Amino acid sequence: MDIISLPVEYDHKKIDGKFRLVAIASQRAKELSLGAKPKVSTKSKKVTTIAIEETIENKLDFVTGEEAVIAREKAGKFDYRKQIEESRKIAAGEDLTELEKDLKVYLHEKGAYDKKAFEELFTDKKGEDTGEAEE
C-alpha cells in the first residue's frame, strides 16, 4: 500500500466502524511514536500512516464491549504513583549499597571498621518500630 486513500477499506466483521478504526489507529500511533516497532513492512515514515496500515491489515489486537470495560477497570485500578515510588525505592536501595561498599572500603582503610556500628547505621527503621530487641 503506497498511499492511504479515503475511503479506507477495512474488515467490517472485525472493526465495526470508522470511529473504532480511528481509535485503534490513534492508540497505535502513540505506541509507535514512543518507539514501538511496526508490525508491517511499509515505505511510510509517518506513525499515523503506519498505524492505519497495521489496523487495516488486522495486525493489531484490541478488545470491545464487555472485555473493554473490564480492561479499563483493571487499568484504572493500577496505581502508577505506587509503581513510581517502588522504582524510586529500588533505585535508592542500589545507591545505598554503593554507599555501603564505599564506606566499608573507607573504614577498612582507616582501620576503624566497627561491624556493629556499621550495621546500626544501615538498618531499616522498620526493625525499631516492630519492637525487636537489640543485642
Question: What can you tell me about this protein's structure?
Answer:
The chain is an all-alpha fold. It has two domains: 1-65, no CATH class; 80-124, no CATH class. It has helices at 18-33, 47-56, 66-77, 80-110, 115-121, 126-129. The mean pLDDT is 76.
Quick synopsis:
This protein is mainly alpha-helical and 135 residues long. 59% of the residues lie in helices and 0% in strands. It has helices at residues 18-33, 47-56, 66-77, 80-110, 115-121, 126-129.
Binned, the helix content reads: 55-70%
Compute the number of strand runs. 0
**What's the story with the biggest beta sheet?**
none
Q: Return residue spans where pLDDT drops below 50 for at least 5 consecutive residues.
A: none
List SSEs in N-to-C order.
HHHHHH
How many domain regions? 2
Describe how the helices and strands are arranged.
Layout: H1 18-33, H2 47-56, H3 66-77, H4 80-110, H5 115-121, H6 126-129
Which features characterize this protein?
135 residues; mainly alpha; 6 helices
